[in-house]
């Protein structure tokens, strides 16, 4: 539902007041802004976050104030985003962002602050995040789909993953023994390697290197949004200055400062702790205690035979449980939107034209896209909808209504509108297809097709705007404009 309506529903649920109960249920600064132009509020939050993040990225400098601001701004969007922000890596980004706050000095902007270098406690919170991400993913697989235990999941994964990329096609047709090797390697990396973190410096570095390489392989073989890029970040905490020193040029500002700090520490010339430094130590210890306490339900979940994945146990999502692909779909199904200008949708002569999404499979000749780390959220949600019904995903009908009106907001999320520059369609329907990669060397592949498909049936019946009026009104959705004139 629209952001304003969602906040009003939360407000009613917590007793009709904007107080601590509302903030605990939906932490967001939107509670304190003017709701008369909610779109402007959302755009402003996104733009401010982009400016701050861009500054940190370009300069390599940040302080706690900036990092807290980024964390609060993203929280404000995620917590009102509902289905649009329902992906597990939203919580992972929030947790990573929270921990990053404590890597930075309070006020100063310095790549290597002399008075408050990153605490070992903070470094270990990142390592602990990596351990939880990997164990969560590994355990949910072992406890989930049988194919993870009989080592056959990779026979299906590349073809049925949410948004394949070009390499997915070639990886899918790897030899059977290679798929078994992949599955065994996955179990080793997710279930065994994380414990290297606790076996001393060298093994911790080995863990970091394996995890980074693992994520790079996942990036190459599929479009998993920014998840794999984000998972690399805490893995970097497994390395120390000595193992990362080669990445920085000799005599450069950051490397030179680090060497000077290490030299002074080795010579016993560390500065006397100031009041601010003592306060910072208290903050670091408090961080460790907080993460430890909030980790208790997460660890209990990891140990439970009823493990759940991608769940938060606190409203601020400071410590979360993670997991991915606990079950693997064995067949790929797609929902294809089609529209027609025909007066009668059941007429044999009715010409149905297909809409194409930005990345998800549709046109059989279109090469799978390469978009990671960008995230086409609608394409991902369509993947989930394809193995549900439209009654379970009512937003599908909402999209159909918008397509009937040639609504620019929804069309901006699509790649091809067959009615561009023409009258809007009179009818829109959803068709359900089973998709498979073409066999290399087959006739279909020779014709330039990446996919072959077979119709399963209707996903939702043909609908027009007038017929949807009651459906929209019953859900308090604004009804799209019905064109008065058609050519």
Write a structural description.
With 487 residues, the protein is of the alpha+beta class. It is 50% helix and 9% strand. It is built from 20 helices and eight strands. The strands form three sheets. It has a four-stranded antiparallel beta sheet. A hairpin with a 7-residue loop joins strand 1 (311-312) and strand 2. The longest helix has 29 residues, at 275-303. The two termini are 34 Å apart.
Condensed summary:
It contains 20 helices and eight strands.
The number of distinct helices, counting runs of at least 4 residues, comes to 20
Question: What quaternary form is this?
Answer: single chain
Q: What's the number of extended β-strand segments?
A: 8
Amino- and carboxy-terminal Cα gap: 34 Å
Strand content: 5-15%
Structural class: alpha+beta
Q: How are the strands of the largest sheet arranged?
A: 4-3-7-8
Task: Give the low-confidence spans.
Answer: none
- Kindly provide the radius of gyration, computed on alpha-carbon positions and rounded to a whole number of angstroms: 26 Å
Describe the biggest sheet? 4 strands, antiparallel
Helix content: 40-55%
Q: Categorize the overall geometry.
A: globular
Mean pLDDT: 90
> Would you list the SSEs in sequence order as H and E?
HHHHHHHHHHHHHHHEEEEEHHHEEHEH
